[in-house]
Amino acid sequence: MPSLMLKSKFLDFISEHNLFSEHDKLLVGVSGGIDSMVLLHLLVNSGFNVGVSHCNFNLRGEESDADEQFVRYHCLMNGIPIHTIAFDTKQYALENGLSIQVAARELRYNYFDEICKEHKYSHIAIAHNLNDSVETVLLNLARGTGLKGLTGIKPVNGKIIRPLLFATRSQIADYAKENNISFREDSSNASTKYKRNFIRHKVMPLLRELNPSADYSIYNTAQHLNEAQILVERQLAQIQEDLISVNDDKVLIDIEKLLKESAGNYFLVNFLATYGFTPFQAAEAYKLTASSPGSRVESESHVVYRDRSYLILQHKQLQNDDVGVTIAANDTFIESPVKLSINIVDYTEGYTLEKDMNVANLDFQKLKFPLTIRKWKPGDRFVPFGMKGFKKVSDFLVDNKVPLADKNNVYVLTTAGEIAWVIGYRIDNRFSLSESSNKIFKIKLLVSN
């Protein structure tokens, strides 16, 4: 593509997507590679007000330092404001449990935000191109994704704009050659140990054998899917309004309505993605609709757990499993972390006890209120009904062949620090009824049919 034609398409793309106005001040992320150097050249030669930001991630030794010096020199010779920083990316990744790629991205964009605030830049221009978008689609497809993951890279994401997204690498290379634009080669781009490079060097050449225009075909398909995604999001918003309610710090998802919704599973995948759940985790969360109360699925930040009528979404920091939920003597119903109904009944002659593991018949006089519901923990012990000696809860669960997945969701009812009931399994013998008992504290675990 001739230089003038690429510049014309560049300006058209900016106008079509309303990326910025001629009065805006742009911060351009420049690595020194061909894409970012061409982007900088196009912006400067189009008369836009720009500054440059360069991040030295110290991942390639002298090569990284040489990139920084190259960008510094270019900006100095052309009178372009420049902001640079050096990171210990490996240490940051180690301290935060991140991959090198994720750590570098996080460091870069955090720095960009700081520079924008300090120097009043309105937008951050990044040099992603058409091929980058195509590779993103294929990467997401290989990993497993929903519709959104197949829409590619967006021209606008908040302050971040991508004015080169319409251009292929070959078009960018032609422009650089025609305009004598110097740039630095990143040696890591040739390595196929990185997933994106594997797509670039191994997968795309094979797809081009099937279709020489594979890049454009995939890119255009992604644009169509992006339009479809807009329609889908409108429908998902309507479903969300019907299914979701909020109670204090909890998000309640109506199970009955979710199961009736034909796109319920797809809705949940999209809804929970906002809270850090992967598609697989979201699919597991959907399965909670057929599980017992207390079952849960967790992302890094949030948990979804099942009660009788709802899937409840909550931030982990707001979960009260460790401190416990209290029960007063006059409470009749507990919603969370497990759903319980409570009755105090007279223990009279001829009264028939309900024999069900989900029902605890406790001697009201032996209990000290408030009671507490919490998850069992290592070291907990109690006297199982029918026995005289103490037994560790962990051993009791093993003896009763409770699956590991269910063990993690076992709760206990305590009184004055002592376990009165391993909920849904066995009461403690010390709080059972006797001939002298006159009132029953009857508490029932409500489970779905």
TrEMBL record:
<feature type="domain" description="Lysidine-tRNA(Ile) synthetase C-terminal">
    <location>
        <begin position="371"/>
        <end position="443"/>
    </location>
</feature>
<dbReference type="GO" id="GO:0032267">
    <property type="term" value="F:tRNA(Ile)-lysidine synthase activity"/>
</dbReference>
<dbReference type="InterPro" id="IPR012796">
    <property type="entry name" value="Lysidine-tRNA-synth_C"/>
</dbReference>
<comment type="similarity">
    <text>Belongs to the tRNA(Ile)-lysidine synthase family.</text>
</comment>
<comment type="function">
    <text>Ligates lysine onto the cytidine present at position 34 of the AUA codon-specific tRNA(Ile) that contains the anticodon CAU, in an ATP-dependent manner. Cytidine is converted to lysidine, thus changing the amino acid specificity of the tRNA from methionine to isoleucine.</text>
</comment>
<keyword id="KW-0819">tRNA processing</keyword>
<dbReference type="InterPro" id="IPR014729">
    <property type="entry name" value="Rossmann-like_a/b/a_fold"/>
</dbReference>
<dbReference type="Pfam" id="PF01171">
    <property type="entry name" value="ATP_bind_3"/>
</dbReference>
<dbReference type="GO" id="GO:0005737">
    <property type="term" value="C:cytoplasm"/>
</dbReference>
<keyword id="KW-0547">Nucleotide-binding</keyword>
<dbReference type="Pfam" id="PF11734">
    <property type="entry name" value="TilS_C"/>
</dbReference>
<dbReference type="GO" id="GO:0005524">
    <property type="term" value="F:ATP binding"/>
</dbReference>
<dbReference type="GO" id="GO:0006400">
    <property type="term" value="P:tRNA modification"/>
</dbReference>
<protein>
    <recommendedName>
        <fullName>tRNA(Ile)-lysidine synthase</fullName>
        <ecNumber>6.3.4.19</ecNumber>
    </recommendedName>
</protein>
<dbReference type="InterPro" id="IPR012795">
    <property type="entry name" value="tRNA_Ile_lys_synt_N"/>
</dbReference>
<feature type="binding site">
    <location>
        <begin position="31"/>
        <end position="36"/>
    </location>
    <ligand>
        <name>ATP</name>
    </ligand>
</feature>
<keyword id="KW-0436">Ligase</keyword>
<keyword id="KW-0067">ATP-binding</keyword>
<dbReference type="InterPro" id="IPR011063">
    <property type="entry name" value="TilS/TtcA_N"/>
</dbReference>
<dbReference type="InterPro" id="IPR012094">
    <property type="entry name" value="tRNA_Ile_lys_synt"/>
</dbReference>
<keyword id="KW-0963">Cytoplasm</keyword>
